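Wed. Picked up where I left off yesterday with Histidine--tRNA ligase. The coffee machine is broken again, so keeping this brief.
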Amino acid sequence: MMDRSKTLARAARLRMNFEAAGAQVVEPPLLQPAGTLLDLYGEDIRARAYVTSDAVRGEQMLRPDFTLPVVQMHMREGAEPARYTYAGEVFRRQEHDPDRASEYLQVGYEVFDRDDPAAADAEVFALIALQLRGLPLRAATGDIGILMAAVEGLNTTQIRKSALMRHIWRPRRFRSLLDRYAGRSAVPESRLKLLSSESGLTGETTVLGKRSEAEVEARIALLRADAAAPPIAENELLALEALMAVRETVPFAIEQMRDIAVDLPAINPALDRLDGRIAALKARGIDIDSLDFEASYGRTSMEYYDGFVFGFYAEVRPDLPPIASGGRYDALTRQLGNGGEIPAVGGVLRPDLMLMLEEGQS
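Structure written out below (tokens, as returned):
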């Protein structure tokens, strides 16, 4: 068991380092309104958070992370540009892995700055890497924005693209949809029967739940329109699969993705932004030639990341979660901004895991 006093001391030191870099200290409440999280992520968030309620405040969640409340605070009252830091407990249910801590300290650094997103990405990555110097860690990077651009550029219906975009963070569901839209998987017998009937609602159809007949008919109309759409072209599908499989050091990854862009030209602007980030990382002293890039990295993280993503992992302890992680979440500021938005990127560290690795080295 890690000595909590040591963990608190390390967290305080990390936060002081971020203050020295220009960050303002913030302390969001432990209890967060559940409604906002449920609106953003749906019921899936319940599997990862502790939920409680009272008669006055309604349904609440023990803070699953800091980013969302920091974004809400900034969009209400923050100046521009702004940098924030925090240190405190977060709570995650770990039913799938009871050996992992369900309560732990997290220290973070967030940047809200619209002038130069590439420089802000590099600032956050380099500053967090600096806190981890000397530890046996592997850095992984990715860019969800490239995959999102690839999906938006597919020559298929907007309904299909929207469905794929919703499930980018659920790789199995994404794969299932992709196979269906490409004509690789068979249509379920129940759906074929529904689509072949003259009316969506037959005598054998039971309307379940709270959906009205009109809502069911509208859903059936969408299914029929989807069934009539041509499959995604094989060259686009193969290019998207090749993109998702890219896992190389940054220079080779860029080379591979530029080749893939011949069949997926919509990713070129995102690759240009990646080039800008690489230049900014180099300017910060990051060794790009040995830095790993995985095009699918970040797809099982919180769904607010929509651009640059990164994580630092213990090579000697592959069983541990990331020692540090982060990414860009521009879309989240739009969702919570009541009409406003600002480019934003941040990252968090686990001081308890840092100490564990240090003690393992001694």
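Quick read: DSSP finds 14 helices and twelve strands in the chain.
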